[in-house]
Design goal:
CATH superfamily of the largest domain: von Willebrand factor, type A domain
Largest sheet: 3 strands, parallel
Number of strands: 11
CATH class of the largest domain: Alpha Beta
CATH architecture of the largest domain: 3-Layer(aba) Sandwich
Structural class: alpha+beta
CATH topology of the largest domain: Rossmann fold
Helix content: 25-40%
Strand order of the largest sheet: 3-4-5
Distance between the termini: 50 Å
Order of helices and strands: HEEHHEHEHEHEEEEEHE
Number of domains: 2
Number of helices: 7
Length: about 260
């Protein structure tokens, strides 16, 4: 994650942090948690395969600021990529902290599982499948794809193949040749995170309060009026349909506003 993102001198980690800073306030009403891996044990760059036995930030409401602080403090040079072990930690945490609410995992990675850690693509696929089969938790895969720090692109096809397998195993693949959510730079990261959010919430937005006159509201996406057929409003639950849901899932929608058309 300490390699430059495409088209910038900023690292992939810095671009991810910026995108998270934008998206986290949008999900402030959702319980969130975080696990970064590998665990920083003082060894940088290579041969660190440590994964914490618990999550960095337990799943709870109001954790956005804590997650931002953890991402700021984390070192993207912490070591290798022990992805299956990270899923083992997540699986145990979710198993021992049950809830009736649906849960999802977002795997954000820019590399293959590291053989130095005994991690393989097949072991990662198995871990993702087990999380879904045993606990009913789907995984969204966010792949940060690009050349190495030296400009080498030879590893990209293998990485994309693996990310596609992870996305299918997680139960939330996209349609098309690229099954995972791909990002090569900061704007693409932002769009992908928004699209994952929309897919995870099924295009449902919870309003702070129920409009007093729901039949008279105007609903807008990015300032453009959404016709009544494009959404359903019930109390505080606003659900988008058809092309308006697709726009959210594509990451194109940055603002949603709801107001009384008569100003009351």
């Amino acid at each position: 994650m300490d390699w430059p993102a495409v088209g910038t001198t900023r690292t992939r980690w810095e671009e991810l942090r910026t995108a998270m800073d934008t998206v986290l306030p949008m999900v402030a009403d959702l319980p969130l948690g975080l696990l970064t891996f590998p665990y920083m044990d003082g060894t940088v760059e290579r041969n660190n395969c440590a994964v914490s036995t618990t999550v960095d930030v337990p799943i709870a409401l109001g954790t956005g600021g804590t997650i931002q602080a953890r991402l700021l403090a984390a070192d993207p040079r912490a070591g290798d990529t022990p992805t299956p072990d990270a899923f083992a930690t997540v699986r145990e945490y979710i198993r021992t902290n049950p809830t009736t609410r649906p849960r999802f995992v977002v795997l954000a990675t820019d590399g293959l599982p590291e053989p130095n850690c005994g991690a393989t693509v097949s072991a990662t696929v198995d871990a993702i499948r087990a999380l879904r089969a045993d606990l009913g938790v789907d995984t969204f895969v966010l792949g940060i794809v690009g050349p190495t720090s030296s400009g080498d692109t030879s590893g990209i096809p293998a990485l994309r193949d693996a990310l596609n397998l992870f996305a299918v195993a997680g139960g939330r693949p996209q349609a098309g040749a690229i099954r995972y959510y791909e990002a090569v730079d900061g704007p693409a990261l932002d769009r992908s995170l928004r699209a994952i959010l929309a897919a995870a919430t099924d295009c449902v937005v919870e309003l702070d309060s129920a409009p007093s006159r729901p039949s008279r509201v105007e609903v807008r996406q990015n300032g453009t009026l959404v016709p009544a057929a494009g959404y359903t409003l019930a109390g505080t639950r606003l659900e988008f349909h058809g092309a308006y849901c697709s726009s959210i899932r594509s990451g194109a929608v940055t603002t949603i506003t709801v107001r009384d058309a008569c100003g009351g």
